[in-house]
Amino acid sequence: DTGVSQNPRHKITKRGQNVTFRCDPISEHNRLYWYRQTLGQGPEFLTYFQNEAQLEKSRLLSDRFSAERPKGSFSTLEIQRTEQGDSAMYLCASSNRDRVLNTIYFGEGSWLTVV
Amino acid sequence: GDSVTQMEGPVTLSEEAFLTINCTYTATGYPSLFWYVQYPGEGLQLLLKATKADDKGSNKGFEATYRKETTSFHLEKGSVQVSDSAVYFCALKGGSEKLVFGKGTKLTVNP
Question: What is the DSSP letter of B27?
């Protein structure tokens, strides 16, 4: 396994701009998750996909946030009209529901700073 | 809803000291329990897990036992090393697919 890959690792943007993060999951994993982590806190669930279907979304995922996984492989998370409160690390994770323990593996995260 | 409570840090120990990080949970049903570790500047790595009551997860000298009667999953290590310095997160996965995390406990081990 090459692991979960996220890009970019760091992004600084001005308030009001749009940003997009990409996640490439472990190759045979059919589930993909997005979490958000702010300083001093644990990760908070945002959304998850099974293949290309988005099956669950958190209330944290406001209408400025949109996630896609068009072909059931990589995923993108777009934040429109960024606000300073969006500054956080965005973590992607993946798992394979067909494996007994369905362990969730995380990427290294994408840091967003909104100035 | 489901929740996880961890002991607040930071925790500072000398090398070779015994480590305990407390974790308790609230969940309906029978969740799976996890400890993840986050080294500085990195993402989360799964440290160990347990899927049913009385299961003991272990890895790299760390252990945690799923105690249903006390709804706990405390992390222990008999002799910590400087390289164990990191933030440790307790988490559960209940009826849905999402992991619910505690706030994390920062551990610093001094030589």
Answer: -
Residues in contact with A18: Cβ distance below 8 Å, sequence separation at least 6, in sequence order: A78, A79, A80, A81, A82
* Contact A109/B at CB under 8 A: yes
CB A42 to CB B104 under 8 A? Answer: yes
Asked if the C-beta of A53 comes within 8 angstroms of chain B's C-beta atoms, the answer is no
Instruction: Spell out which residues of chain A touch residue B104, defining contact as CB-CB under 8 Å.
Output: 40-42
Nearest CA in chain B to A47: B98
Q: How confident is the model at residue A28 (pLDDT cuts 50, 70, 90)?
A: confident
For B41, the token pair is: 């500047």
Averaged pLDDT score across all residues of chain A = 92
Test B46 with A103 for CB contact under 8 angstroms: yes
pLDDT in tens, B26-68: 998 889 999 999 998 788 999 999 999 999 999 999 999 999 9
Task: Give the mean model confidence (pLDDT) for residues A50-63.
Answer: 90
Query: Does A108 score more than 70 pLDDT?
Result: yes
